[in-house]
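Minutes, project check-in
Item: structure for the 298-residue chain
Input as provided by the requester:
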Amino acid sequence: MTKNRDPWFKIAFQLRGSVIPQIMPLVILCSGFGLILSILYAQGLPVAFSTGSIIPSIVLGLLLVFRTNTAYERFWEGRKLWGILVNSSRNLARQIWVNVDEKEPNDFLEKQETLRLLAAFAVALKLHLRQENINEELAELISYEQYEKLKEMNNPPIEISFWISDYLNRQWNRGCLDIHQLTGMEQLINILIDVLGGCERILRTPIPLAYSIHLKHLLLLYCLLLPFEIVHDFGWGLAPVMGIISFTLFGIEIIGIMIENPFSRNFNNLPLDTICNTIKRNINDLISLPPSVHDHVK
């Protein structure tokens, strides 16, 4: 039992990855406003009055739920797309490794380089989605000429997919692949391009700005009007009550903001570095097969 409880409490009091740093200024603002009203109420000033539920709680709740659900749908769709990328890379690597005949001594090395291009595609896609420049992580997977070429490209993953397709077509022209094998592999490359397009769609279709602005306005109005209605019930306890309410409401909104772009380096977003390392490890495991195993597979 103790073993199961420890992680729960560890996570509950963990600051890294939580929304506390982002919402703390707003929580302090709402709590401070509640404290000021408590002081004024204690001095007999008429600060307690009904706001008539100007912003119904259920309306605000539905807006927050919609905001969070929309963001999570984007997060989950991004995860599914990267899952497809992992599986398609594995399938394409396996088919290239098994089906492409090696007629010359250099063919084996060229095959290994092509398999590394699959890992390079994943890394290039990660950098592309994060809008980061080509770096050394990609340089270790491709040749110097290819690395310099990618620096000039606006969409490096597409260029890498062209290199893989070019390799497959050359092997077909040499008679190292039949047309059915080539067609199957090209379909897997098309899936990789579909993953690229799906991720770009998520990245370049943000939540409408008007919706985000309006939700923030409603949250502020709610948290600033509510104290007038409940100050007579809580008195000096209004400040902590408003702190808890604002912590809940602003926290839900910030969670939606944090996960709506699932490809950034935020702690709560997709572990793209880990996924890319998984693909690289799969490729390295495949190309490190001893010659006897490789001959047996062929």
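Outcome recorded: The chain has twelve helices and no strands.
No further action items on this chain.
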